[in-house]
UniProtKB/TrEMBL annotation, chain A:
The chain crosses the membrane at residues 50-71, 116-138, 150-169, 181-202, 237-266, 291-309. It comes from Ruegeria sediminis. Pfam families: BPD_transp_1, OppC_N. Belongs to the binding-protein-dependent transport system permease family. The lineage of its organism: Bacteria, Pseudomonadati, Pseudomonadota, Alphaproteobacteria, Rhodobacterales. This is ABC transporter permease. It is a multi-pass membrane protein. PANTHER family: ABC TRANSPORTER, OLIGOPEPTIDE TRANSPORT SYSTEM PERMEASE PROTEIN APPC. Residues 110-309 form the ABC transmembrane type-1 domain. InterPro entries: BP-dependent_transpt_permease, MetI-like, MetI-like_sf, OppC_N. Keywords: Cell membrane, Membrane, Transmembrane, Transmembrane helix, Transport.
Automatic annotation (TrEMBL), chain B:
Gene3D superfamilies: MetI-like (1.10.3720.10). Residues 112-321 form the ABC transmembrane type-1 domain. It is a multi-pass membrane protein. It is found in: Cell membrane. The chain crosses the membrane at residues 115-139, 151-175, 195-215, 257-277, 308-328. Belongs to the binding-protein-dependent transport system permease family. Pfam families: BPD_transp_1, BPD_transp_1_N. Keywords: Cell membrane, Membrane, Transmembrane, Transmembrane helix, Transport. Its main location: membrane. This is ABC transporter permease. InterPro entries: BPD_transp_1_N, MetI-like, MetI-like_sf.
Length: 323, 335
């Protein structure tokens, strides 16, 4: 804009509509530039459920990982004389049928459940984004990869997960040790069976993005495909990926607990929330609280993550933001 | 429309074949041996004969072909024989369970009624609850009713059935003593009293399953209604002076039902999968429990058949959903 254009010779004659828009941009220039993440955060703050969910999730994760530093009873320590105790100061959540402290077991179980959830989510996210970007960006991969996604969606997932647990449990625990082998097995089983929604969403976004001018500009200055994907495509599909990430944690935690509950997850002396719940079911009539605490922990974690995802989806959607 | 249906139908065949191959190959890797239970005193050559009798001696592709033939050719014949009293399948080898040494399909047929009763009722109940909730919370968006609906469906998403099931057992069965915690399959409904008993034992599993389905369906119904409520045709309908009831319940609802109907169709097979856990909690001896039992007992033919039945159901209802969408929304027919 030159000075000549900004200069209005006769203010009385100029219609109001031409004078007013000039004032708008001028004023906005004085505002400091706002980053995208600042906007996202401002929108996220207005979603009360999401804030509550975020706080709750951080609280649960922190107490599960940091709790054992303050509550240093060994979760596998049996004390048969103190079995089946109710809540007391020595054992706030009581003890189980072998006298193991329930609070310590809840923390240890939570560590496993949360880390399985996060690791499986990361794996599913990686697979999903990889396949989604590949299918969306390269036309020749689109057909086969999307057929593959459809095929995976048509598989009966829970039965297949159970079958996978049955089949690979022994070879993997022989190769990596019982607990680590099972951890790898559960994480990869959940990851392999839950990448499809992410792949579909990412592919759709990439299809639209790659026709945009900035991709054309990058290509015209000779940027390689991998560079375009890393610099221009991936940052722009980050928001759907983040939303799937939160929802993925929720699904993974529920799936892991379901496997443990059905007796096909971690071994009995290795607590996870689902395992603790299943152990508690045997004593349902006498000590219902033993089912209640692990179940509540699973439900609260998943609930908080779901609300977090809900708020994140709203915050990352530029159409909703600023309203 | 017919070509559309036929095209989807043709596409379903390779999908099913691929899935059956995946299931077959996955189970081929199984370390379990059906001869593990046979006493050690049985000489090796007898064991080898027994393995062959179970059809284990041949190469993999022949066994795969045999299994496909058994599943798609012989079992339907058995069904036809059963219905019309013919003898097409006489002498043919059927898929035999390693656990019970009886045909797998016979056991499946025994188990299906329990699953259909519990799961089917839950699905119907859930649809009846979810649709009105979805409609009203979309119509009054951000009202307290909508907020409540959001919260309840979040709970439905988040509380896994193995917790909600156990919770209702503690509340209604242990503390209040209203309903039995174990589903009695031998109960025959003959008169009013046995009908009431049946109703009592069904309430809890149906409640648990229906909560989950309601959560998903009502969210979906709400989103679909919200998409339509701001459309131009709604404004036109209001401008014509139609009553609010007609606008919402006729104009908006009919258009919003299109995706919801397909989601309902898509959800039917996943109910069989999801019911594995609920059946385990309430000890309903339906198909889900059969699968768990077969997995624990290493009964490969049973696991293969059941997983494949689930896969067939998923593909079938995907097809139904596609065709339904095509019928309800003519715009997508020719893409």
């Amino acid at each position: 804009m030159t000075d000549k254009e900004r200069f209005v010779p006769d203010e009385g004659l100029a219609p109001a509509s031409t004078a007013l828009p000039a004032a708008g941009p001028m004023e906005e220039l004085h505002n400091p530039p706002r980053s995208q993440w600042r906007d996202v955060w401002d929108q996220f703050k207005t979603h009360k459920g999401a804030m509550l969910g975020a706080v709750l999730f951080i609280l649960i994760v922190a107490s599960v990982y940091l709790g054992p530093f303050f509550w240093d009873i060994d979760p596998t320590q049996t004390a048969i004389r103190e079995r089946n105790q109710g809540p007391s100061w020595a054992h706030p959540f009581g003890t189980d049928q072998l006298g193991r402290d329930m609070l310590a077991r809840m923390m240890a179980g939570g560590q496993t459940s949360v880390s399985v959830g996060i690791a499986a989510m990361l794996l599913a996210l990686f697979l999903g984004s990889f396949i989604g970007v590949l299918a969306g960006f390269f036309r020749r991969f689109d057909g086969p990869l999307m057929r593959l996604t459809d095929l995976f969606l048509a598989l009966p997932l829970l039965p297949l997960l159970l079958v996978m647990m049955l089949l690979f449990r022994e070879p993997l625990s022989a190769a990596f040790g019982l607990e680590r082998g099972l951890f790898i097995l559960i994480v990869s089983a959940i990851g392999i069976t839950s990448w499809m929604p992410t792949a579909r969403i990412v592919r759709g976004d990439v299809l639209a993005l790659k026709e945009r001018e900035f991709v054309l500009a990058a290509r015209s200055i000779g940027t390689s495909n991998s560079r375009i994907i890393m610099r221009h495509i991936l940052p722009n599909v980050l928001s759907p990926i983040m939303v799937s990430a939160t929802l993925g944690i929720a699904t993974a935690i529920i799936t892991e607990s379901a496997l443990s509950f059905l007796g096909l997850g971690f071994p009995p002396d290795f607590p996870t929330w689902g395992r603790l719940l299943q152990d508690g079911v045997d004593y349902l009539q006498q000590y219902p609280e033993r089912v209640f605490w692990p179940g509540l922990a699973i439900s609260l974690t998943v609930l908080s993550v779901n609300y977090l995802g809900d708020g994140l989806r709203d915050a990352l959607d530029p159409r909703i933001r600023g309203r | 429309m017919l070509t559309f249906t036929i095209r989807r139908l043709v596409l379903a065949v390779p999908t099913l074949l691929f899935i059956s191959l995946v299931i077959f190959l996955l189970l081929e890797l199984a370390p379990g041996d059906p001869m593990a239970q046979v006493p050690l005193t049985v000489p090796p050559e007898v064991k080898e004969k027994m393995r062959e009798a179970l059809g284990l001696g041949q190469p993999m592709h022949i066994r795969f072909w045999k299994w496909i033939v058994q599943f798609f050719w012989i079992e339907p014949q058995v069904l036809v024989d059963h219905i019309f009293g013919t003898t097409f399948s006489q002498g043919d080898l059927r898929v035999i369970s390693w656990q019970t040494r009886s045909p797998v399909m016979d056991i499946v047929v025994q188990r299906i009624p329990q699953t259909l009763w519990v799961v089917g009722t839950a699905y119907v109940v859930a649809i009846l609850i979810a649709l009105p909730i979805g409609i009203y919370s979309a119509y009054r968006q951000y009202s307290w009713f909508d907020q409540m609906g959001t919260f309840v469906s979040m709970i439905g998403f988040s509380v896994p059935p193995f917790f909600s099931g156990v919770l209702v057992i503690v509340i209604f069965s242990v503390n209040l003593g209203w309903f039995p915690s174990i589903y009695d399959t031998t109960l025959k409904v003959t008169d009013w009293d046995s009908f009431m008993l049946q109703l009592q034992q069904m309430i809890m599993p149906v409640m648990v399953l229906a909560l989950q389905i309601t959560a998903q369906l009502s969210r979906f119904m709400r989103a679909s209604m919200l998409d339509n409520l701001n459309q131009d045709y709604v404004r036109t309908a209001r401008a014509k002076g139609l009553s609010e009831y007609t606008v919402v319940m006729v104009h908006v609802l009919r258009n919003s039902m299109i995706p919801v109907v397909t989601v309902i169709a898509l959800g039917i097979p996943s109910i069989f999968g999801g019911a594995i856990i609920t059946e385990q909690v309430f000890k309903v001896n339906g198909i889900g429990q059969l699968l768990i039992g077969a997995i624990q007992a290493n009964d490969l033919p049973m696991v293969q058949t059941l997983t494949f039945i689930f896969a067939v159901l998923i593909v079938l209802f995907n097809l139904i959903a596609d065709v339904l969408y095509g019928i309800l929304d003519p715009r997508i027919r020719y893409d």
